[in-house]
Write a structure and sequence with these properties.
Blueprint lengths: L1 H14 L5 H7 L11 H28 L7 H26 L4 H4 L6 H30 L2 H8 L11 H11 L1 H18 L8 H11 L2 H5 L14 H6 L4 H17 L14 H9 L6 E5 L15 E5 L3 H6 L8 H8 L2 E7 L2 E6 H4 L4 E7 L4 H12 L5 E2 L10 E2 L1 H6 L10 E3 L2 E3 L2 H5 L9 E8 L2 E2 L4 H13 L1
Parallel strand pairs: 6-7
Antiparallel strand pairs: 1-2, 1-5, 2-3, 3-4, 5-10, 8-9, 10-11
Helix pairs in contact: 1-13, 3-4, 3-6, 4-6, 6-8, 6-9, 6-10
């Protein structure tokens, strides 16, 4: 029973839904606060986190793609080896991030204030938790599948992958006793110091708190029973083999939600999510080429994105609409199948530019649709073609709009809507574009955009959507 209860706890905390709602209320900043640590330091750590979470998503989705295949194709093996190579290339950076500020617990550092020392320790703690979570939410599945376990432990000189990479480089760190001692010390230090700063609204501090406190590994704790997970058959099998039907139903829900978020930090579901009436209303108001802006204050990724809005996507249309525009036959067969499956929205996410369904996209609190009334049919067709051509590109963790080999969500609009003069920004010498830079164009007096549909905090805005957009952007800037 102890084993089953621990499994259930792991799965519940993985979802970050319901039980995490109070955490979000406690951590959401009510006002902007100035970070005290060096900006280059904090931005470098955020980029490290994003890349780490990206690798988790890729590893998780790859497992789902290959687990039932027999035999594995050459493409499958190539992707698995690239995943391993990416892990090996990043492990030294991860070790540095974990070790970098542990000295704070023993000696402190006169160069920093007490609060800054806590934030530095939180960076090391959250990096270690990310490594444990990556194993639990992604790599454990390979370890527990006999065929994939063998594949990940074979050497491959073509990718410079040594023998027993899964066993010696990934599983070993998960079970290492000295790491357990270190992380328990860091957690105890964090909990002790947090008492003095629990009401702090500094945005970077809240980012680190969310990263730590919504970690499944942190929520479960690091007692000895926790590490028995590495010897269980699989988390999935433990639920599926339960005699009680309620656990099978629970397992289905768990699988769906882990698939949606890939175990990323999300404290609850969006207020527009899983509502058939809202989904139908959004679908009824979407036309090919429409731009969607959304906000998810319950996700880690929104904690430090500048501005009110957090993400941008483009609706390309159904198969029939794309056929009518004469685009369909030019689309890759894989993407054609995605579209026939109802994946009609193009968005740039951590694991690349991809197609998703409206229902999947609506795991959000706020949504606005931007419709270009002045665009000619010819221009729209060319723009949608440009959007489709971005599919498969990697995510740009540098956020550089002048390097289009990789792109971010708002860059998807910037490099495809050529007739619009978009606002941009400059950060540390790099030209970039934020979701707010896109949204603000819809508020200009001479704008070509209308906002046919808007939801704010889960509620439909029934009148004056442009005024509402102007108001929320202005309020946030204040």
């Amino acid at each position: 029973m102890k084993k089953l209860s621990l499994i259930i706890l792991l799965l519940v905390t993985t979802l970050f839904i319901g039980c995490g709602g109070n955490t979000e209320d406690a951590l959401s900043p009510k006002v902007k606060a100035v970070n005290t640590l060096d900006q280059n330091m904090t931005e470098a750590y955020q980029m490290y986190v994003e890349k780490t979470l990206s690798r988790r998503v890729i590893s998780y989705k790859l497992f789902e793609d290959v687990v039932t295949k027999d035999p594995l194709s050459g493409t499958d093996l190539d992707l698995i080896h690239k995943m391993l190579r990416s892990y090996l290339d990043s492990k030294d950076e991860t070790a540095i991030k974990i070790d970098e500020y542990q000295y704070i617990m023993n000696d402190g550092d006169a160069a920093y204030t007490d609060k800054e020392e806590l934030e530095l320790l939180m960076m090391s703690l959250s990096a270690m938790l990310l490594r444990y979570d990556n194993y639990l939410l992604a790599y454990s599945k390979y370890n527990e599948n006999s065929k994939l376990n063998d594949v990940l432990n074979y050497a491959d000189s073509a990718y410079n992958i040594p023998t027993f990479t899964l066993r010696d480089d990934i599983l070993y760190k998960y079970e290492l006793d000295t790491d357990r001692v270190d992380i328990n010390r860091m957690i105890n230090y964090y909990k002790y110091k947090l008492r003095f700063y629990k009401d702090d609204t500094n945005s970077y501090f809240l980012y680190l708190r969310t990263l730590i406190e919504d970690s499944p590994s942190y929520q479960i704790g690091f007692e000895d029973e926790f590490f028995l997970f590495s010897w269980f058959d699989t988390l999935y099998e433990a639920i599926a083999n339960s005699a009680d039907e309620i656990f099978s139903s629970f397992f289905d829900t768990v699988s769906e939600n882990i698939g949606n978020t890939a175990g990323l930090v999300e404290t609850r579901e969006g207020k527009l999510y899983r509502d058939n009436a809202i989904t139908a209303n959004v679908e009824a108001n979407l036309y090919p080429g429409d731009i969607l802006v959304e906000r998810t204050p319950f996700r880690l990724t929104d904690k430090l994105i500048p501005g009110y809005w957090g993400h941008i996507a483009v609706y390309i249309g159904t198969e029939n609409e794309l056929r009518t525009m004469g685009i369909w036959d030019d689309i890759n067969a894989t993407y054609q199948q995605n579209i026939m499956d109802g994946k009609l929205i193009v968005e740039a996410l951590r694991d690349g530019v991809q197609l998703n369904s409206v229902a999947h996209f609506l795991n959000v609190d706020d949504l606005a649709i931007m419709h270009d009334n002045n665009e000619t049919d010819e221009d729209k067709i060319l723009r949608i073609k440009r959007v489709i051509n971005q599919l498969g590109k990697e995510y740009d963790f540098e956020y550089d709009i002048e390097d289009n080999s990789k792109i971010i969500c708002s860059e998807l609009v910037y490099i495809t809507s050529l007739n619009i003069e978009w606002d941009t920004a400059s950060t540390v010498g790099i030209n970039t574009i934020s979701p707010d830079n896109v949204a603000i164009v819809s508020t200009h007096l001479d704008t070509v955009f209308t906002i046919p549909l808007m939801y704010i905090d889960g509620e439909l805005v029934t009148t004056n959507t442009k005024e509402k957009m102007t108001q929320i952007l202005a309020e946030y800037e204040e």
